[in-house]
Amino acid sequence: MIDKKNAFYYRPKTNQSTNPTVRWTFLILGWLFFTLGIIGAVLPVMPTAPFILLAAGCWARSSRRFHFWLINHRFFGKFVRDWEDRHAVPRYAKWLAMVMMTLSTSMLFYRLPADTLWAAWVVAALCSAAVVVLFRLPNA
C-alpha cells in the first residue's frame, strides 16, 4: 500500500486553455482517447500507447486533476512521463511494435487477393515509416 501523504508524485507541466469551450472539448476528447486506450489494452487489434498519450495531451490542456491522475497512474504513468519529459519510448515497446507491424503486414500480403495487393504495399510503406520514426526516438 502506498502512503499517499509521503509518496512522491510527479507534478506535470500543464498549459490549460482559458477558453471554457476549448477546455471542455479537450476534456471530452481526453476521456474518449483514454477509453480507446483501455479498449486497446484489452483487444490485440487496437494500440494502447497512442491513445493514452493523446489523452494525456488533451488533459494537460483541460484538466490538471485528470492529467495529474494519468501522470501518476500505476500502469500508464511512467510511459506518459517518459514521453512528456524526453519523447522516449521503452526499447521493448519499439521491438514489440515492429514485430507486430511486420506480422500484420505479412498477413495482409498472404490474405489479400492479387487485385488489391496495392493496399498491402501502402500499409507496408506506412508501417516501415512508423518503425523508422519509432527507432529514432530515445530509449526510455
Automatic annotation (TrEMBL):
Location in or out of the cell: Cell inner membrane
Pfam families registered for this protein in UniProt: DUF454
Record keyword Cytoplasm present: no
Keywords: Cell inner membrane, Cell membrane, Membrane, Transmembrane, Transmembrane helix
One Gene Ontology CC term in the entry: plasma membrane
PANTHER family registered for this protein in UniProt: INNER MEMBRANE PROTEIN YBAN
Listed transmembrane segments: 21-43, 118-137
Matching InterPro entries: DUF454
Protein name listed in UniProt: Inner membrane protein
